[in-house]
Amino acid sequence: MTDPPNPLGLGTPFALMLVLLAVYWLLRVGREARAGFVPRVAWWGVPGLLLLLLTPVLDVPALFGVGAGLLLLSEFWPGAYVRARQRPGWAWPLVALVVGIALTLGVTAPTPLTRVGVISALAGLLVGTAGILPALLWPRPAPRPLGFETRWKAAVTPDFPDLSVSVSPRGAHLKNVSSRPLQVAGWAPAGINAWYRVRGDDGRALNLLRAGQVVLLPLDDQASGVRVWYAPQPTAAPHLFRADWTPPARAGGRVLN
Predict the structure, then answer these.
(1) Which residues constitute the domain of residue 58?
(2) What is residue 109's predicted lDDT score, i.e. its pLDDT?
(3) What is the pLDDT of residue 237?
(4) Do residues 48 and 22 share a domain?
(5) Distance, CA of 248 to CA of 257 (rounded, Å)
(6) Where are the membrane-spanning stretches (predicted)?
(7) What is the dihedral of CA 65, 66, 67, 68, to 10 degrees?
(8) 123 domain residue, yes or no
(9) Do 59 and 128 reside in the same domain of the chain?
(10) Residue 2's pLDDT is what?
(11) Which pLDDT belongs to residue 234?
(12) Which residue, of 137, 168, 201, is where some domain finishes?
């Protein structure tokens, strides 16, 4: 059984140390990406790792100090990571990653890669992986709460409503009868140019109505219906729920046909 090719001639402990440093650096990039940050000075970690790799290859001890200094710079510099305004692109990191993988496969080829090829493969893997992590782990933007402007937008009235209402002496009890949360904007009594926020039992305004959740819309016995503006998804068009009934104050004079 032959040993795997080792063009760089690295010892196992030193190679393991480099792998751990590279994994830590990539995990750091991924953690910052989840918070919406991308590498800036942190990119110096790539040449820092490569200089550590070249130290025993070129037998130049000074490279180890320079590489370690670049790694420390990429980790502790105040501007190592900066907040990006939008999700980073993934095209160029994917190209670097594919090139790195292709060169890595050449290590086990009948004609192994030279030292330059191995170092280029490792650089492509590091740069490609670190560049694609922010694109993959970019945090999703929080849905913007529906506001008063929803009242004046063209609203969709669904054939099968996501809400239902029941009337009691306290008012109208609004229930989410769908299987998903609904973003609620506001409501108004039928026939009245008003705007009220949907509020929970504690009096706080609600932006989201969970599946099966019931809230009270305070109304008097003269009210004849409600209008509720909501959206089933953050990017969906505003929906309008209409419910009408005979006011309890006039229930005795109701005529059923």
Answers:
(1) 12-137
(2) 59
(3) 77
(4) yes
(5) 19
(6) 12-29, 89-110, 116-138
(7) 50
(8) yes
(9) yes
(10) 46
(11) 64
(12) 137
Report the distance separating Cα 5 and Cα 103, nearest Å: 14
Q: What is the pLDDT of residue 40?
A: 93
Q: How many CA atoms lie within 13 A of 90 on its CB side?
A: 10
Residue ranges in the chain whose pLDDT is less than 70: 1-9, 106-113, 141-145, 148, 152, 234-236, 249-257
Which CATH number goes with the domain that contains 238? 2.60.40
Cβ atoms 239, 156 nearer than 8 A: yes
Structure confidence at residue 46 (pLDDT): 94
Instruction: Please say which residue of 137, 171, 193 terminates a domain.
Output: 137
Tens-digit pLDDT profile for residues 111-137: 556 777 778 888 899 999 999 999 888
Structure tokens, 129: 């992986």
Residue 1 lies in a domain: no
In this structure, the number of other CB atoms found within 10 A of the CB of residue 131 comes to 23
Residue 197: which of 233, 163, 229, 153 has the closest Cα? 229
Residue 166 lies in a domain: yes
| 110 and 174 share one domain | no
Same structural domain, 222 and 165 = yes
DSSP class per residue in 147-205: -GGGGGS--B--SS-SEEEEEETTEEEEEE-SSS-EEEEEEEETTS---B--B-TTS-B
Q: Please name the residue ranges forming H helices in 35-114.
A: 45-58, 62-76, 91-105
225 contacts 247 by C-beta, under 8 angstroms: no
Tokens of 120: 């280029």
Question: Domains in the chain: how many in total?
Answer: 2
